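Continuing the series of single-chain predictions for the mutant panel. This is the parent chain; the variants come on the following pages.
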Amino acid sequence: MPLDGQIRVNRSGAWHTSEADRRDRTMLESCTVESFTRHLGERFRVYAGQDEPFEIELIQASGLGRESTDSTSGHGSRSAFSLLFRGPAGILLPQRIYRLEHAEMGTFDLFLVPVGPDQSGQRYEAIFT
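Parent structure:
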């Protein structure tokens, strides 16, 4: 699957994304902590604009104990949660949106924030509200 998830701006300045990007966004809007818990210990491929993608491991999925409602998505409410990934020690990604790919979950964009290294590599967090 080509990873052309670029945001496009038309002449009037309005932005739009491809149909695949809309599907990805809808998939993420319906995700819960349980959607990711079953993938703990699994690897996700990260496309960071480099020649070769690399892998990060999902090491934690935790509920944050508060519910959010998104009136614009039509998906109602869900409990907020966080994901913690571990990547290679030699690579430090800056905070931004990255394209991720997983064998079962597919391809989607996720905002990752570096939260510091541990004994095995660099850790990154994503928060869902």
